[in-house]
Amino acid sequence: MTSRILLPVLLVLTLSSASAFGAICSNATLLGNYGFLVTGSANGSPIALQGQIVADGNGGITGTQTTSVNGAISATAAITGTYAINAKCAGTAKITPQGGTTAGYSLVALSGGRVELVGTDSGAVVSGFALAQGLTACSQNINGVYGLQQTGALTAQGPVAFGGQISLHPDGTLTGTRSGNVNGSVVLGDSISGAYKFGSSCFGGAVLSINHGSPAHFNLVLTSGGHEIIFIQTDANTVISGTLQQ
Prior knowledge:
- The protein has one helix at 2-13, and strands spanning 31-42, 45-56, 60-69, 72-85, 90-97, 103-109, 114-119, 124-132, 144-154, 158-168, 173-182, 185-198, 203-210, 215-223, 228-233, 238-245.
- By secondary structure, it is mostly beta strands.
- It folds into 2 domains: 2-132, Quinohemoprotein amine dehydrogenase alpha subunit, domain 2 (Lipocalin, Beta Barrel), CATH 2.40.128; 144-245, Beta Barrel (Lipocalin), CATH 2.40.128.20.
């Protein structure tokens, strides 16, 4: 079922640049680079998928994604697929991860280069979104203050949810604070420190320390012209993902 769930991510990209209201869409609506995030459950286990896709404007998709299923992390895997979009900006997609099983999805385009999606296979209760990257390259410095939203689960502790603020500095370091809840226990004023880096494709990584503790590792995708970062934690026994937004 893990393979089937990876597929929804790609479908999201399908409607990237179209506006959901007043737009006339087609397969050509989906064209270019996108970041995506899909969360939910697979056969009762929590799951998160994050990555990048490229839509060719002619019904074809390629990309990569990182997956966490109940805390088991799958390294970045190749994905391929097909999609069809109607004039009302709704559509379907079939996506196949390398070595996996094809899965189906339903999707709809919204304004601002955003696509909402939901899985349509039994056993997979997943939903998510894709965002146009809006940048041709990310070699320039990415920095500024971002709002943090982070949700998911720690397999040894239970569900988690955090909000806060992170500053990305031009020298590649980051600092911030967060507050939230871990399995019903309130957490206030955690300090965040670490480092980040983006490659020219707008895919990157970060290593963070919470309250000067053990390092946590994340994959990052920059979207929305640099104004939103989609992330997933890549440490074992975590199903943690979220966004940083300006």
